[in-house]
């Protein structure tokens, strides 16, 4: 029997995690956000291997980072149908969203040994799980689970993705617009779009497992879709491809 994985990949803020979480709930599957593991390792490195701040970046060896992830440990813990990231026994789901983690995560995720370590954790989590798992990331359909029976590649325009990120941070920008600045503030939107574009560039151009759609992925442009519409589209594909 083929593995029961739905792979959801795409650029930053295209809606992968939100979509994966809701699809998993509707199918009564589990959800695994692979980016959370890369973020948790980045957080662990920043907190334990030193951070110089003031624009100067500490560089760490691959061996140092992987040994730290093993020792602390950094891991995924299955709670309420979701694989949650933990560092040294502490839930870091909130802490990994900080700006300092976001700024360094793509650099850590480009290290082949780190990717190998993360892939082992993901495959173990899926293998040890009785039901299906919706996994979201950048290389799930291309590298981690190339045999997944359903692969979805979510996209959205850079402006829309920036707007979503600002809206998440409570900076307005909900559909219809508040008319009072917030994410409708053009310079702020432009800055956010540039930050996202820089991370997408780093993720798409790295040598190992770059961000790209698998040849057999269904590409879904969500720019003009609501979250509910994109969730329904993926659930419909899942029911078609994964009967029973
Ligand atoms: O949620 P957001 O799109 O901001 O990012 P994320 O999914 O939390 O992923 C953070 C970073 O981890 C990405 O920018 C990639 O550098 C890396 N990542 C990866 O390389 N491969 C994955 N499968 C998932 C994330
Ligand atoms: O995981 P990724 O970085 O791709 O995206 P996310 O963390 O799920 O964030 C996407 C944000 O956009 C969430 O706040 C969603 O509620 C929102 N959103 C969406 O995903 N899709 C839409 N069609 C509209 C809003």
Q: How many domain regions?
A: 1
- Outline the low-pLDDT stretches: 174-183
Q: Into which percentage range does the β-strand content fall?
A: 15-25%
Number of helices: 9
Helix-strand string: EHEHHEEEHHEHEHHEH
CATH domain fold name? Rossmann fold
Q: List bound small molecules.
A: cytidine-5'-diphosphate
Number of strands: 8
CATH architecture descriptor: 3-Layer(aba) Sandwich
The helix content is 40-55%
The helix-and-strand class reads alpha/beta
Radius of gyration: 18 Å
Query: What is the terminal separation in angstroms?
Result: 13 Å
State the CATH superfamily name.
P-loop containing nucleotide triphosphate hydrolases
Mean pLDDT: 92
CATH class: Alpha Beta
Tell me the overall shape. globular
* Biggest beta sheet summary: 8 strands, mixed
Can you describe what's shown?
This protein is α/β, with parallel strands linked by helices and 244 residues long. It has 9 helices and 8 strands. Strands 1, 2, 3, 4, 5, 6, 7 and 8 form an 8-stranded mixed β-sheet that branches. Helix 1 crosses helix 9 (227-241), helix 2 packs across helix 3 (62-71) and helix 7 (158-168) crosses helix 8 (186-205). The model is unreliable at 174-183 (pLDDT under 50). One cytidine-5'-diphosphate (CDP) binds next to helix 2, helix 4 and helix 8.
